[in-house]
Amino acid sequence: MSTAADTLDNQSTSDALAPPVEQVTAATFITQIEHRQQEWDDLNAMGQAIICATVQRYMMIYLFECKTAFEAFDILRSVFGQDLHQSTSAKLSRWIQCTYDPKMKAQDFVDKWRQNMLEVQMAFAPKDRPSASFCYHIFLSAVSANPTGAAWVSALNTNESPLSLCELENAFRDLLAFVPLQEGHK
Questions:
Q1: Half-sphere exposure (CA, 13 Å, Cβ side) for 157?
Q2: For residue 154, how far is the Cα from the chain centroid?
Q3: Is residue 153 within 8 Å of 144, Cβ to Cβ?
Q4: Among 43-52, 55-64, 112-121, 144-153, which stretch is predicted with the lowest mean pLDDT?
């Protein structure tokens, strides 16, 4: 039979084997909350830094008063919608595949091509943007898809690539002046 002393001994032994019950004081609780808040603040700061590092400079105006990364992302999503999620490669592909369809008016083609080019330009950091020369050659290729445009391209001296986007704009105007003249001769 077990006696009261045995019961006490067994209880002392089981208490010794049980994990200690942590006394949570107000000070410990506050310290834990402060630690979790610091972890959250660090993650939030990292999120804000990533957002600021990956958006274009002109988008920063929307982010100046944001207090959290979630708020910054939510503002960008509401302002830019799907453009925020559209990949650079999709923009580049759309630009390169934009050609001067014979059924299309020259002005409509130039407007569409220019818009696609500007989207690509804005998708890259300034130092990584396609050069005016590259843009010019993509434009010549797009124009060549149309017989009238191909005639304009063959009349050009393609060794003289424009050195600036302003000169590319001159090529747009030149094409727009050439097309009505060619269509008048038909």
A1: 3
A2: 38
A3: yes
A4: 55-64
d(CA 76, CA 60): 10
CA quadruple 122, 125, 128, 133: dihedral sign: positive
Angle between helices 106-123 and 88-96 (to 10 degrees): 150
Average pLDDT over the chain reads 79
Enclosing H/E stretch for 67: none
Of the listed ranges 49-53, 65-69, 85-89, the one predicted with least confidence: 85-89
Q: What is the pTM of this model?
A: 0.53
In this predicted structure, what is the pLDDT of residue 100?
92
The answer to whether residue 82 scores a pLDDT higher than 60 is no
Q: Which residues contact 158 (CB under 8 A, 6 or more apart)?
A: 140
For residue 57, count CB atoms less than 10 angstroms from its CB and return exposed for 0-12, middle for 13-18, buried for 19 or more.
exposed
pLDDT score recorded for residue 164: 79
**Residue 164: strand, helix, or coil:** coil
The CA distances from residue 86 to 69, 142, 148, in Å, are: 20, 23, 33
13 vs 9, 21, 133, CA distance in Å?
6, 16, 85
The rounded Cα 157 to chain-centroid distance in angstroms is: 37
The Cα–Cα gap between 65 and 45 comes to 14
